[in-house]
């Protein structure tokens, strides 16, 4: 068995053939850092097929987000990119990776492999940037919360099916952006505060009165009416 890494060992891309599995924002950051660290080569691979260069109106008509080919800032600096790739294995010596093995696929679910397209490439550092489908199921099973069909925590207004357990961000809505995590964390905190204060539960995405120092119907000169923040339908904060 290979020896465990030393506590002060630094994982670096310097002088190595780097493979990045995953084509999203995280994958782009991996490519960029590999460039900064002086990688010998950088290749980014994606499971899905190459999208069209122009918006396919039959698939993503306006105003939906267009599914089309985009090149990240990192790949503009250099490196290769390949689509419709299914990784089949890694091989190496003494516990250190030396090659990645893959096969071309059809580019669409269920991503069936295409015969006679097997290939091996040098790979001395493999970075996984594939996102995730749902939170760790073992944890959710241990606490006994209900889940939606995609395996996320089922918590419409942040309260789960188990008393005293709340969920927000990716755990509740699935893979998303940091701005959603921040927004949902704040809203969930309101729900938890009301729960701990034994107040009536209220969905923070509905109309809320804010600015607790302002009192409705105040007779003080110059007093402003209570401020209100209206939450848009779904999960968005509109004002």
Overall description:
This protein has 239 residues and is α/β, with parallel strands linked by helices. The protein folds into 2 domains: 17-128, FAD/NAD(P)-binding domain, CATH 3.50.50; 137-229, FAD/NAD(P)-binding domain. The chain is built from 5 helices and 9 strands, in the order E-H-E-H-E-E-E-E-E-H-H-H-E-E. The protein has helices spanning 25-36, 73-76, 137-143, 170-173, 178-196; strands at 17-21, 41-45, 80-82, 85-93, 96-104, 119-122, 125-128, 208-210, 227-229. The strands form 3 sheets. A 4-stranded parallel β-sheet has the order 3-2-1-7, covered by helices on one side. Strands 4-5-6 form a 3-stranded antiparallel β-sheet, with no helix packed on it. Helix 1 links the parallel strand 1 and strand 2 (41-45). The model is unreliable at 207-239 (pLDDT under 50). GO terms for molecular function: glutamate synthase (NADPH) activity. Residues 199-239 are annotated as: Disordered.
């Amino acid at each position: 068995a290979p020896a465990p890494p030393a506590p002060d060992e630094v994982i670096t891309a310097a002088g190595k053939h780097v493979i990045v599995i995953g084509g999203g924002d995280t994958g782009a950051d991996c490519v960029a850092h590999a460039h900064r660290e002086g990688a010998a080569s950088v290749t980014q691979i994606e499971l899905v097929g190459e999208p069209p260069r122009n918006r396919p109106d039959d698939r993503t008509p306006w105003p939906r987000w267009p599914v089309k080919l985009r090149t990240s800032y990192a790949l503009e600096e250099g490196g290769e990119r390949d689509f419709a790739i299914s990784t089949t294995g890694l091989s190496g010596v003494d516990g250190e990776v030396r090659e990645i093995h893959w096969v071309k696929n059809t580019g669409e679910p269920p991503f069936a492999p295409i015969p006679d397209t097997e290939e091996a490439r040098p790979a001395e550092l493999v970075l996984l940037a594939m996102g995730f489908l749902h939170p760790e199921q073992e944890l959710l099973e241990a606490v006994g919360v209900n889940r939606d069909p995609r395996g996320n925590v089922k918590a419409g207004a942040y309260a789960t099916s188990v008393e005293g357990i709340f969920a927000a961000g990716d755990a509740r809505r699935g893979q998303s952006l940091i701005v959603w995590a921040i927004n949902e964390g704040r809203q969930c905190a309101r729900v938890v505060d009301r729960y701990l204060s034994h107040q009536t539960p209220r969905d923070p995405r509905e109309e809320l009165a804010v600015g607790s120092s302002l009192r409705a119907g105040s007779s003080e000169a110059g007093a402003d009416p209570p401020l209100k923040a209206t939450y848009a339908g779904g999960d968005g904060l509109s004002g």
